[in-house]
UniProtKB/TrEMBL annotation:
A Pfam match: CBM_48
Gene3D superfamilies the record matches: Glycosidases, Immunoglobulins
Highest taxon of source: Eukaryota
GO molecular function, one term: 1,4-alpha-glucan branching enzyme activity
Protein name: SBE2.1, related
Residue stretches making up the Glycoside hydrolase family 13 N-terminal domain: 70-114
Gene Ontology terms: cellular component: cytoplasm
SUPFAM superfamilies, alphabetized: (Trans)glycosidases, E set domains
GO biological process, alphabetically ordered: carbohydrate metabolic process
PANTHER family noted in UniProt: 1,4-ALPHA-GLUCAN-BRANCHING ENZYME (PTHR43651:SF3)
InterPro entries for this protein: GH, Glyco_hydro_13_N, Ig-like_fold, Ig_E-set
Amino acid sequence: PSFTPLRAPRDTCDWAAQLDGSAVVQQDPKLQEFVPQLRQRFHTLTETLGALEGAFGSLQAFASAHSLFGLQRVHADGVSGYTYREWLPNAKAVFLFGDFNNWDRTSHPLHRERWGVAPHFFEAPLGALRGTKAEGPPGAAEAHLSSVWSIFIPDLPDGTPALRHRCRLRVLIVPKEGEPIDRVPSWSRVVWRSEDSGLFNAVLWNPPEEEKYHFRFPRPRVPPGVAPAIYEVHIGSSSGEEGRVGNFVEFTETLLPRIKNLGYNTLLLLDVVEHADFASFGLYVTNHFAVSSRLGTVEEFKALVDRAHALGLRVLLSLCHAHSSKNVMDGLGCMDGGDNNYFVSGPSGVVEEAKVFDLSKMEVVRFLLSNISYWITEFQCV
């Protein structure tokens, strides 16, 4: 006898028209069984974005903390100097020290910021932001202090900065429990390895105007319909000589023209962000805002990007935002003496040589989004 084969029900949904996060099914039908999860993620995303924009005014403002945290040159009310700001929820005392104070570990104490001070809006948990605007806990004055610590260091009487170009710095943290610890500031933009200890120190990078590199060429645009032809490269391994680390200057002068002549229109750089262990290939980042010191200086990297743009090459960076090196003395590991400042607490927060970022914390999300914004605005990467 004849029979009609059973067929799967026809999918009549116009997935491309969906505005709930499930439109991606149009491109990959196998994702249809995960539509509930896609919709839940999209709902959380839109809810969080709306809350952040309500609290900060815009996502861009939320992701501009690199102009607030770390060392910042400031001029206000006729007084100039540097501010240093750090998020340290497990600290009970914090001190900045370095070349500027002859490495006196306790002469420059930081003070805790107050909750809800615009434009900081410190530490409102993402869950609270998605509800009503949180102004901090009620109660005694101590309860209204946040976990963000800061200090202002004014210029010297003769008008010269107390913190000068190439000044080395570290931060001393007294945790709520345990012994005092030295750390590299989380938002450091330059770090150099000490010849004595082998550990990194933060370095204030503010060269004279005539020594700063200024971009001359705009980011190139890829014409519509032209697919990106990506040249992926680890600059440190690009020297072509065993045992010798490549650098920004050499790469700019010798390899960029060759890459252009091969027909590529996009660069993907793997090892630009500072990492203590060269063998990690840039995977275990220790200092997320710092250019790798083994490859060259901030100005040399800017010159590389600008030269690439002049040749019509877009520049992309590999940024590790799922995890960070678990290094304690030169990374974010146990930054304030606890294991859950930036990271998921306990064994589930450790993967091989890395710690997993805790994306449920507003300051962690702000740190990572500001990191993206920093590399785009400061170095013209896309």
